[in-house]
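We treat protein structure as text, and this decision shapes the records that our systems exchange. This encoding replaces a full spatial description with a residue-level series of whole-number codes. Below, we set out a record of this kind in full and without editing:
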Amino acid sequence: MNRFFKTVLLTGLFVGTTDLMYACISVTVRTGKFPGKMLYYIAGGALGLQSSMQGGNRVALLGLFFHYFIAFAFTLLFFFLLPRVKFLSFDKYLVGMLYAIFVNLVMGQLILRLSRLPVGPFDLADTAVPGWIIFGIVFGIPIAYKAYKYYGIKDQPLG
């Protein structure tokens, strides 16, 4: 396997895993119960929520596949964009945080709306900003860090 795809694969696996762990911890803290059906919920994007929640192990595996597919797709997108979009090369931590917000907005306002899951209106609730910060730490910054390292990009001052 060539170096590019190995780096993207391992980075996608890492951020997919940390994102799933963050989601489980977040739901558990908010509700007091472990989200044992989270992967079923994710599969509900394709199957419909009612069908997915009654599914078995195959439905959970489908949810796991979709989760990692999305994590890999957004990782690959960043790796493709970084050398082509020069303004992304100024600070890996800030760019990673901004990329996480971008991913969160695309997922919430485009991907979820195209799925079979129920989606409410856009709302910048009190939890949005802290959620974006945590998502940036577990998803955006690791992607940016690995991409900067892969391409040998040093942080550049703006201007």
Summary: Helices lie at 3-31, 38-47, 49-53, 57-81, 92-114, 128-151.
